[in-house]
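Re: Re: ligand-bound prediction request (bumping)

Still looking for help on this. To restate: I need the protein modeled with pyridoxal-5'-phosphate bound, output as structure tokens. Inputs repeated here so nobody has to scroll up.
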Amino acid sequence: MASRSDGDETYLDWAASTPMRPAALDAMVRAAQDGYGNPTGAHHRARIGRRIVDDAREQVADAVGARPAEVVFCGSGTEADNLAVFGAHAARGGQVACSAVEHHAVLHPVEHLGGTVLRVDAAGGLDLDHLRSIADDALTIVSVMLANNESGVVQRLEPIREILDEHAPNALLHTDAVQAFPWLDVAKLARPADLISLSGHKFGGPKGVGVLVVRSDAEIRAQILGGGQEFELRSGTHNVAGIAAFGVAADLMVQERAAVVERVGALRDRLVAGIKQAVPDAVESARDPLPGSDAPLPDVEKVAGSAHLCFPGIESEALLFMLERVGIYASAASSCASGAQDPSHVLAAMGYPRELAAGSLRMSLGFGTTDADIDRALAIIPDCVQQLRAAAA
Ligand code: PLP
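Reply:
Sorry for the wait, this slipped through. Here it is.
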């Protein structure tokens, strides 16, 4: 097996976090130097900070097809998701629901409120009949992510909106677009949503800055009270430097997205095809039928950076350990605070048996992934899988 020569690093965990774009980093440093006045203040230095925040707000609004007054900066994608679910429930009461494959930042708030967790099919698509069966006047918020952080599966929102318009007129539609934004035209695809979450560190921006887009006719209630910043929806002094970087990175992503998708999508296809050729029983989520089933899967789109495979008969933890030793960084399920590798709730919801889900590998590519990264991954990963299998035999 290839060994790690100093500095050889293959980063395949872009869905967990990305390096900052140099232009975003520059903007961050400049904003920290010049925009140190509190943006809510009245003097010249405060106005500089406010202008930086306002400029970023416009960049984000353009990037997602919203009005500047609909862009609410907050402290993370997690906070944006929590604000959407708890904020909508606080304002409207009633019943809440989300898909079974949501990030925990949505799933846990919905479970906390005793909401309905909606089934998905074997390709990760929402079970629209299940939604229809619970859609009534009491339903006040439904949250369905635009692209999944493990499988990369893209969910169309129009059919969901149609069901809500027909059967649940009081329901807001929230979409977590955190993983979608680097790859998809969120301005277009999230148009049916009333609330949209983004996170800076998934597209070359900073960690610790999120956005919730709140359409002007969507009523939600603040979850953090204080000075009334962000249109009274999120108190707390602005992270001016982080917000500046978020705006620059969002703008860059939109400008470069089509080219990145084309280039990285081809790299992803080569990676998946190469691994499947070397390990023919590998199961690609949302593409390959589950072992023992010959039912074809519904046709779904995946974001261009997502390569998600399960290897029967191995444990992800052992594989990730081997890969880390040679400087290949990937993950099993989504990363979480504890770092514990519980079997993925996403794969479980898609019907994966526990043994198969236990051998999952999420390789996520991003705007900086190169041909050489894929060459190296292909030279090493199948070899590691074979070694683990030989050791277990
Ligand atoms: N939603 C999705 C789909 C994610 O992938 C993540 C991060 O992994 C989050 C929300 C949380 O974002 P943040 O890391 O900014 O809290």
